[in-house]
Amino acid sequence: MWIFNYLIILCLIVHVFTSDIETLDINEEESFLKSPKYLSNDELGLFFEDQTKKFPTLAKVHNVGTSVNNNTIWALEISKNVGNRSIGVPMFKYVANMHGDETLGRQLLIYLSQYLLENYNVLERITTLVDSVDIFLMPSLNPDGFASSMEGHCDSLNDYVGRSNANGVDLNRDFPDQFKDKTYNEAMFLTRQPETLAIMAWIVNNPFVLSGNIHGGALVASYPYDDSNSGRDCCEESISPDDSIFKDLAATYADHHPIMHKGDGCDNEKFTNGITNGAKWYEVRGGMQDFNYVHSNCFEITFELSCCKYPNSSTLPLEWHNNKLSLISFIESIHLGVKGQVLDENLEGINHAEVIVEGNNKTIYTTERGEYWRLLHPGVYKIYARALGYTQSAPSTITVTKDKTELLNFHLTVSPPSKGILPEIIEKNSTDQFGFVQQVKFEHHNYVKMAELLNILAVEYHNITRLYSIGDSVKGRSLYVLEISDNPGKHEPGEPEFKYIANMHGNEVVGREMLLLLAQYLCQNYKTDKRITQIVDNIRIHLLISMNPDGYEVAKEGDADSVTGRPNANLFDLNRNFPDQYVINEYNKIQQPETMAVMSWIHSLPFVLSANLHGGALVANYPYDNNANQVAGENNSPDNDVFLILAKTYSDAHPKMHLGQSCPRFPKEHFAGGITNGAQWYIVTGGMQDYNYITTNCMELTIEMGCYKFPYESELPRYWLENKEPLLRYMEQIHRGIHGFVRSTEGNPIANATILVSNIDHKITTAIDGDYWRILAAGVYTITVIHPGYKGHSEQVIVPDGIEGVSLNFTLLRDDMRSWAIENDFGITFNTLPMDHYLNHTEIMKELIDMEKSQPSLALSIVTDKIYSIMITDKVGAPNEDKFHIAVIGDLFSSEPAGREISLRLAKHLVRGYESKNLEIIKLLELSAIHILPCIDENVDLHLSNKECVMEDSSHNPVAMAIEKNMLEGNEISKSLVSHLRDNQYDLVIVLEGGGSSVVSPSEGTMVDNIYSMFKQSYKKLDVIDNQDCSNDKKYDYWKQDVLRSIQVLTGSLAISARLSCCNYVPPNQIPYLWRSKLPPLMNLLTSINQGIIGHIINENGVALREAIVQISGSMHQFHVTRDNAIFKIPLNVGEFKLAVTCARYELNFLDVTVSKNNITQITVILKKSMQQSFKPSLYQQASGIAGFVTNTHNHPVSEALVSVVNENISVITNFEGSFFIPLPPGGHTIEAAASGYLSSTKIVSTNVGGSVQIMFRLIKDEMVLGMPRLA
Fold first, then answer.
1. Percentage of the chain with pLDDT > 90?
2. Tell me: domain 54-335, CATH 3.40.50.150, correct?
3. Annotated catalytic sites, by residue?
4. What is this structure's pTM?
5. Upstream peptide bond of 624 is cis (omega within 30 degrees of 0)
6. 560/358: higher pLDDT
């Protein structure tokens, strides 16, 4: 019967198509309608990928999630300047194939993507649409169901196979329902389907404005609500607050459809004008369109597009023409109503402000940039905006028409924060105006008084306190910490650890006194004040009253802004003394006793939240405190949303801070909302708050508590009243987000399991009891837990906006190596076999030779002067100058042999992956040649007598030492290695080593670090399974960094080290696990090089200029061209760059180049003959002597510096690039570099016969000359 009726409908459609269907333009491109067919999910992914390659500025693929059967849920974004949405451009989405057997919408969205892309800049209407809307097309929310469905079946199969997902669940009944009670929804959440959770997260985390949900089985446009709280099954409307605009939107689609608008397209169903209220048709509980409207800003309509659920593919062109105008017109409806921004007094957008239409209880919330869009039916409305911490705007009257979008901006002013309502009192004792049960004395406490008060508290309140010391200052003063907890002295599983640290700068004393007052306040009010009791019972609090007691003792009361007492007794600024993610300098090269004590303390307890209390300003400062360029400018951490909440929590609770007003000493310094990103304010290297975030689970802010560093004690009562509430409220934020336990199936806690959060590039680990805490902003997240030896597990969770938090526990199943190898390593059993010893040189060579024999077109052995390598690349015997050449060295550091085994496994992985037709590896080897050098030192076993985890003695590494000291003549292996690297002109040298888990580069602060930062991020991004506590990861040995620098100078190649493990020496039995953890980051690192610039340098006659040199503006590194075809290759991050191309006897050529994501920019550079003779000093002078550069600490050249040979009457002046050359006889020499405004630097070097020694001076600014930096 269905088939008969469907044929009748097709006949009607043919008639309509030949007479009534209009086209958008006679020039429209629709060649994609030839040979119609339905694409499988794999074909869909490849098709979208092809679209992004064909239209890189218009199309971008998104992986929204995975289905039950691990099929990817794809979405294609189409927009002008895709991926970089302009302010005010609304986001639209179509979602189809929610029911797997309702397939028409799936293919129509594929056609729509082609139509929009192919007709952009061809049809004016399409161009305008793509320019003005950010469009997302999801052809299939249920790929598993689609795979189980059968073409030509107009009804669902038995048991609704295909309609439901692989678990047999109807996805359009699986969403939270507004009319169900809260308990029911929470229980249902625990079993929600992965497809549902994926799209819920997508909806909640993106500011979609309008959406269409495409179904099949009827011909109608259905609008909210889909159900009611009446208990009925159908037949009565359930009206939403926006019923009028929903009817307009539904009619827009139906009116442009040649059949739908008639309302009788399918048998036995009549819909007035082709639209219906969902509940009136039949009630759907747990539907997606209502979820969009209730839980986000998005208005969604459900479109039923065909009477037959899975029509034959031959009908697809006809169905496209029936729906084309409707699909496009509905997207255009996104411009109905009002849009604008909600702005503060500085014209900055206010996030999460409410936009309210009087008389309508649907609230729209602004984006993080303050944008909003409010769809409205034509009419006159009064609209206003409000936001927490701001004065509500007056209502604005606006007339909405159907012809255009009305623009309406709101400007809000900051209002004082509300005082709030104090919690209920348990047994309220009378307190004074400051909140104390017993009167306290507001006074400054020197070290003796401080210690006395802390001991009194520890004795008097022994049931909730513990006084302990984490170490001593330079002068032997104890660094006292007062613990306050209902169970002092032990970590309670499940209870988070909090810390306040004060007086890091000895003359900034307000925080010191505030913590003493806070300690008394908490102790006095425990068990009498409900709020304080809850804080103490549920948080383990640690108060480090003074981190710099020595500095305090020399500071002076009344000091507003001096530096007296600021540093410790060794004159080190402790907030410049921590290991830093970007810089090792004179301030943090050696940690002071106070710093070491705090670092050890930080890593000894599972701290979750912290604040570092300072003085000299009034602002809450959040990470990061510096950036790679060391120039003031915003540098946000991956958890910026959370840090903004934390900073605003403190600032908004403070009666003055949130106003952002300047301090008298700095009248031009204003902070919007009383908060600031550290790096945007001014650069701090070696700061404590960044160290906390980068190396531990702890999030820390720096709170500047007042404009004066050491105020008179008469001011202390005011400071207490201003900071009491912020101090308490900030502690309470520790419960935000999620918390729980990770256990094995046996119920045992799993320590050091890694907790990952979707779309946030920052991991934390579980504590010894398997407990964890992850502070998060409100939203929907996918939480993944992994640990070696266990199968990873993911859960999606909705985090509310509040401090109640969500409990989320994980139970992990053990896994086996064989299963992992099949899934991740192409089934290579060798790579995960148990090991009891390292392979020797002969055994490794045999493995590589066998590899070459099995794949002679892919792998080629290269032996040059005792250095054995194997090159792996596509078409290995063909010319490959235009490929990136990467060297991977396994055992440059002999005491760290893990790299030998990992590099061997990497070679096997690449070869087997190519054999298995892995697309990622095929692309990698088509663009790159990977040279594996697993063991350069055949005597490596002789250096393994000391097999300790940490091996800092460089004498165990003779090859690396010889390279670092440029004493190649005394070590044949190092000499051969450098010769090999230089002869092969590698674009990148990767040294595999131990001692950490990051990528390390030889220099900081230059444009070349743009390249290095790309490598670091690519490695870090997927380095998620290394769960060891690498607290020493930032303490990179200077000599090892100098090895990399020497490789770069001696060979001209970029050089980095990929650190494999916290240990220098890894026991052999751990190698299979290490390989598992490092395979993803290593592959990501290798593939990251295939982005950048490849150029060919010729003269006007087309002759290759083989002596040409290329430099990036702002960098001193020289990129040399290949020997035959003068090709240069530079891997680069995304961005715009200026290149300088030089060649002897040719004019200097500057050119601008743009690098886009995952693309190689190909250029040809033509140099013109120069009429002038020029000479450019080279680092590679053939004469005996010393060549090098003089730079400042930011790696900028220092010109006109004086470079002298001490005790000899020899000196030269550096040129504009900071370079110099001094011819010298062989022997030892002392070289000094000096420049105006800098401290001089001296180095001892040895010169050899027949070549120059390369050195680099980094001069430090003389602060006494240039003045002190901004100190706070």
1. 57
2. no
3. 304, 704
4. 0.51
5. yes
6. 358
